[in-house]
Amino acid sequence: xxxxxxxxxxxxxxxxxxxxxxxxxxxxxxxNVLDAVRNHQVDVDTDLLDIVFDSLEDLEAMVxxxxxxxxxxxxxxxxxxxxxxxxxxxxxxxxxxxxxxxQETAATIAPAETEVKGIQGLDEFELTVLQESNERGFQNxxxxxxxxxxxxxxxxxxxxxxxxxxxxxxVIKSNPSVDQLEEEDFDxxxxxLLVTQEELSEIESRVMKVSELDKVVVETFSIDEYKTNxxxxxxxxxxxxxxxxEQAQTENDQTKKKExxxxxxxxxxxxEPKQQPQNKTIRVNIERLDVLMNLFEELVIDRxxxxxxxxxxxxxxxxxxxxxxxxxxGDLQNIILNMRMVQVEQxxxxxxxxxxxxxRDLHKKINLKISGADTELDRTVIDEIGDPLVHLxxxxxxxxxxxxxxRIAQGKPEEGTLHLKAYQSGxxxxxxxxxxxxxxxxxxxxxxxxxxxxxxxxxxASLDDQxxxxxxxxxxFSTADKISDVSGRGVGLDVVKNTIESLGGxxxxxxxxxxxxxxxxxxxxxxxxxxxxxxxxxxxxYAIPLSSIIETAIIKKEDIMKxxxxxxxxxRGKIVPLVSxxxxxxxxxxxxxxxxxxxxxxxxxxxxxxxxxxxxxxxxEVVLKALGNYLSNVFAVSxxxxxxxxxxxxxxxxxxxIK
Amino acid sequence: MTELNGQDEKIIVFQLKDEEFGVPVQQVGSxxxxxxxxxxxxxxxxxxxxxxxxxxxxxxIDLRTRFDLDSKEHDESTRIIIVHxxxxxxxxxxxxxxxxxDxxxEAIEPPPEVVGTxxxxxxxxxxxxxxxxxxxxxLQKVFSxxxxxxxxxxxx
Lengths: 659, 156
Hints:
The structure holds 2 protein chains of 2 kinds. Chain A is α+β, with helices and mostly antiparallel strands. Chain A is built from 23 helices and 22 strands. In chain A, the strands form 5 sheets. A 6-stranded mixed sheet of chain A has the order 14-18-19-17-16-15. In chain A, strands 6-8-9-11-10 form a 5-stranded mixed sheet. In chain A, a hairpin with a 2-residue loop joins β12 and β13. Helix content of chain B is 12%, strand content 47%. Chain B contains 3 helices and 11 strands, in the order βββββαββββββαα. Chain B has helices at residues 63-66, 139-142, 145-155, and strands at residues 8-16, 19-24, 28-33, 47-53, 56-62, 79-85, 88-94, 96-104, 108-109, 123-129, 132-137. In chain B, strands 8-1-2-11-10-9 form a 6-stranded mixed sheet. In chain B, strands 3-6-7-5-4 form a 5-stranded mixed sheet. The radius of gyration of chain B is 15 Å and the shape is globular. The A-B interface holds A 294-295, 297-298, 301, 540, 584-587, 625-637, 640, 642, 646-650 and B 36, 38-43, 47, 49-52, 54-59, 87-90, 143, 148, 151-152, 155-156.
């Protein structure tokens, strides 16, 4: 019971956050009822279950609607009303009954498919005819004719029925109308109002002579009853009409908007026309966004100049205008950047099938869990991240998770769990692939790494567990021919690592023997914008990506030590080599001896280095640019960016500086 | 090597030291005034650095250094000619650029053995126009793949 309750609760929360109001509303009411049941305030009986099932049907319809791109809107008032009353302590059976009238209006809400029972909408003239016929000793009969499901020529059957009826009386009205009947514009049933002198049973047997009829219900039609009924419904119908009109209005609006949409999309051939009309998205070539971005950067540069000019001139109105422009262009920048963001779902979506297939091939039982699929990442990252993930998942299934027999022998559940998780944290997106498989055997990895001379035994002794696990991603490691001897991991993981690092990300491994492993990938939110620390070396400005900086420090000259003829410092108990950017980049200028050095501590994995610069300028978000094809591979420079003053600053690739 | 076809060839003419050079107009993106150049470390000496060309980071080559001519202070008439070649966009620093002329095909001759101080290997041809002598640059050779490869190994 509480499990159902929790499920409803989750559904409510999720739908509310995503803005599906009707869905949230309905689940909220279901939750109330379930809560009452849980607390033994309401007894569970068939009537209550009926209502709950009714609401479930609505839920399902809404969810399907949303899944196919709709907005999940549905008229749920009737069910909500019922649920409400149950939650307030009314007996479900009463609620069910007293709501019958309401339910009928609900039936009319569902458009097109509406089955109006019996004859309705008689006009003044028809009523008089009926009245008169009564007085003359005729009787008014209402026939409900049900055609068989498999009836092929419905119109023909209708014609034959009318033929029969005309012999025995006069048809006053039919529902649907004769026109609709002729065009087969009805389901399997229709209603006819007949004035006749024949017996009811006689009518029935004569009509039933027509083939392909399921049944015919013949009953006396009472005008008085009709009238009272009609009046009762009149008011509700009016309300209903209004509602329908409103609905039609919004639908109209929507189609109009859709038209606008399609007209703007004429160039974008890739839009699926049927799916997601309400989502109102258009696809734009990523190159156009790049062009837009470039143009925008020029604007930003000019903005910088304008700000400079206006502060020099100190003219009030100019200042205000420039400030406003700065703010607006800032917002614009955000929008343009956001346009490039795509949900990781795009990548994750292909995994369930892949995992199922792999599990079958490997004869393993796998339960794939995916969370955080709505986390957003830059388009360019999304395009690149798929293959490394496939690799890691294969690896986890192939070597991580044991066979069902092994798992049972170890006292684990037969079914292994693979959890794919994405989340955003600060300027990074993390993707974790965790399994509850065998984990990595630390000692075997270490041994193999030493055997393959990836590291020396001395180096190995100083590594902690995590560093050892990460050895399986070293390029030398995977060349071994029989890796499955070791831990089962390691084949081609160096490629994965390289791809992720080329995206400006990093990967780390954590594992517990017999309990499982976690591969955690850290990725920058976007490739085109990065946070950097601007530093100055002589007259030149360089940008160091914040993602690789641990901290900045001012070091006294006497704190600098020498080891192997290299300058090093003691940074929090670790010996960190110093690298002078001036030397590395051969910056022209006098070599001055200073008493204090400004140092940026950067890291590459677990290794660190201190970059000596002249001064720190500050932190800034910059747009990453390539140096162009001609200078595609410059040592220790990963790209360039354009600063506010229009000048180009180079982005330091600190990874290249750390050996 | 672009074979000169058709009757006339439109050429952008620029000055370098005391000689006149030409590049086909199709290969020229724009002519820019001198602006701030950001030095790129560990590149060959003739690569002066990169500029911000309307949002695109563009490498700049100093043609004087490239041709082993003595260097000269940049002044008011110094220009950067942005040329396209093989997906590459590179700026060439020249002393001045101020002319566009049509050269009839027959006025173009293959490079002579020795032409002034510029090494013949960068030259595609020579055009004689009345009393002017125009040296047609071979961009492929100016950014020759060999040079770029060499450049890359230096960087790497």
